[in-house]
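Final paragraph of the annual report: two paired records, presented back to back.
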Amino acid sequence: RTPNHIATATATATATPLTCADLLPTDSVFVLDGSGSMGAAKFNRVKDLLQGFALTLPVQSDKLRVGAVVMETNSHVAFNLTSGGQSSEATSQLIDRISYLPGKASATGQALDVAREELLAAGSPGRRAGVRSVVF
């Protein structure tokens, strides 16, 4: 049996779903696993998924900007927030151009460092002051 105060709180609680508009503006970075264990076929499947996802996003220079990092032995920026921040179609095309050059190992920490230091740090190309950042 539920105590009355819990039942009342549950009955009166309302959830307001968030939309993309609630989260904008945002600077986002996708991290793709380019390690040797992925293999070219899996890497390309991830790229296909990410391209489709990018096409659903409201990418615009004043709303959502997107960059990408490839995680492998020597993680690197695939594209920055300036080049990925024009439209969802442009972002999808940039993702398509990322090549699989397998590294020997996954370097998750290094990839996150690259995202933080080269894409999300103040003064990085396309990075906006006071705008939230998200890494996928």
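The closing record of the year follows.
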Amino acid sequence: MGKGGDSAVTAKSSDGSEMTKAVEKYTWTEVKKHCSPNDAWIVYKGKVYDVSNWLEHPGGAVIFTHAGDDMTDIFAAMHAPGSQNMMKKFLIGDLIPESVEHKDQHQLDFEKGYRDLRAKMVVMGLFKSNKLFYAYKCLSNMCIWAAAIAIPYYFPNNVGLHILSALMLGTFYQQCGWLAHDFLHHQVYRKRTFGDLAGIYWGNLMQGYSVQWWKNKHNGHHAVPNLHSTSAVSQDGDPDIDTMPLLAWSLKQAQSYRELSKDGKDTAMVRFFIRNQASFYFPILLLARLSWMNESFKVAFGLGAATENAALEMKVKGLQYPVLEKVAILMHYAWVAIVSSGYGAWSIPYSIMYFMITTCSCGFLLAIVFGLGHNGMATYEAVTRPDFWKLQVTTTRNITGGHGFPQAFVDWFCGGLQYQVEHHLFPGLPRHNLKKAHELVHSFCKEWGVKYHEADLVDGTREVLDHLQNVSDDFVVEFLKDGPTM
């Protein structure tokens, strides 16, 4: 568990008193060499820490997404005040400032600027949640649930109302996703246990998703959005764009499966999916919830994990709430089975149809927002990632009203993620304060010349599909250069 420690900076003299040891100095080049979970160095405010194999990290294996890199700003974004005290035992020395040659004075001033902006927002009270707002959101969402499950009970023979009920339940699941998201980002409660328990309610019980699965996947995404991993053994890439062989968000990703092939070439399956990925995008969204439920069940019951990072975390740490997670997921499937069967009145095929409508509508409604947030935006290699602010802003798209969708609908439908840029910069910011943050962030980006992108639901979706088609076209061109026609 790391090779740092208090002994790295202090030692005992012969008479038992403490004396300061010479602090080791490291270059940025040296730090960059230590970029895997088994050999992980990270930098925080000019100090170097060795967190190799620190799988006991409270936030999980997400810490390894910044192995060999500076984690100063993502640490501030994702941790409660005072959390840095836990890092002291891993300290091994100081970073030599002059060795960081990729940052000039303009860049240093820019980084100071956005850190000052964060401090200003804290003083403004933007990180304080309005409990009445969240009480309203929770109660209004439970009203959707109550109406959806009441329809099959009171109208057991009305097909049209059953379809409406299924769509309402799918919408309820989507809105549960936004509530679980807020609670698990600790936007609502300062005491993190309360946020976790609320997350289990809205996630495990009401949606059938594992909190542990979500935390590992989502925290990794926040740390490194739209980043491709350095290598097969590194864990510094974004799990949310790990969508091969079905979808590729860059030409390099489209060709990434070649290293898994014996002949070093693309398989027929990869060629088929990537060539047609723009056409498959919406059908894949419809089935997304099935995948998320499957991965959640596997994590909750110790049956496997979707990524090496998650598998590593589960092997060492296991579930933070093992009993609650399992019981809540089983209770979810129990109440869903009762409702989907029309309280025992429907045939098995009809019950499956109802279940699939709820599941596919939820998958589509959730994934369309996720996709608009990042898909089709900039992607980077982990080794050439920009600074924290530029990484979060340039890989992210805000969603506005337009094409007949009023802003009020977008605000409700997207659950705060219409301000995806601001959310990524300040994940702990309650959603009801994101609009105020938007004004500050947009002004700051304009001042410093950082590209800031917004689009409405229609134009944003077109951008995603165009991007997928462009990757497909580039993939086909490169394939034709290297081999026979398809």
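The CA atoms of residues 51 and 242 lie 25 Å apart. This concludes the annual technical report; the extension proposal builds directly on these records.
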